[in-house]
Specification:
eight-stranded parallel barrel, globular, alpha/beta
Length: about 220
């Protein structure tokens, strides 16, 4: 595959993260995929938000799991944007989506939505949590899974293989050429986060990565 560019929570470097505005901007900028994060609200909605709480990215406070969707909808997520639910992103974003889930409950809810919306062909599921990816693989074996990890230790390849992940997303600052080579030897592609500066992009290319996750709508000039 050609070098994959992934918009991190849309293009969070220039737009409010994980909002429809941010996702639209990422697609307009020509990024190949958009990445988002999912938590379940108190009433079971798939809320698009990175943190467990709403405090950092909205004008509200509290944990997503303790708030109803209506309560979350009342919050300002930046520039007047509202916190979207996953179904809205499916309607707005036309290209491929990387959806990161935090736990097994979110995995089950996401699997149900993908089935209902016939979206299994354009969504890949990411997680730091092996058990959540294993649940997706059981429920929807046709959906690609992506293992996300901060470290780049020797366990990356067996962990990815155990959950059926053919792609891993790793922290650029902790990534080594040896890890990339071991993944490639096992038929596993590697992308890195978060690649923003000209130096980051140069390193991503030097490491022979398959792609990069970025906060920005364009690769900076060297």
């Amino acid at each position: 595959m050609s070098f994959l560019t992934v918009g991190h929570r849309g293009v969070m470097g220039v737009e409010p993260e994980n909002t429809l505005r941010s996702f639209r901007r990422a697609e307009q900028a020509g990024l190949d995929q958009v990445e988002l994060d999912l938590h379940l609200s108190k009433d079971g909605a798939l809320v698009v938000m990175h943190d467990a709480g709403v405090d950092r990215t909205t004008d509200g406070s509290g944990l997503v799991r303790d708030l109803t969707l209506d309560e979350i909808r009342a919050l300002d997520a930046g520039l007047g944007e509202r916190v979207p639910v996953f179904e809205e992103v499916l309607d707005v974003v036309r290209g491929p989506i990387q959806a990161e889930i935090k736990d097994i409950a979110a995995a089950r809810a996401l699997a149900g939505t993908l089935r209902e919306r016939g979206a299994t062909g354009r969504v890949s599921v990411l997680s730091f949590h092996d058990e959540a990816l294993a649940e997706i693989r059981t429920l929807l074996p046709e959906v690609p899974t992506v293992l996300v990890a901060g470290g780049s230790g020797p366990d990356i390849v067996p962990r990815a293989q155990a959950v059926g992940a053919r792609l891993v997303s790793l922290d650029l600052t902790r990534l080594t050429l040896d890890t990339v080579r071991r993944c490639h030897a096992a038929g596993i592609q590697v992308i890195a986060w978060t690649v923003n500066t000209a130096q980051d992009w140069a390193l991503a290319r030097a490491l022979d990565l398959d792609g990069a996750v970025t906060d920005l709508p364009a690769e900076p000039a060297a």
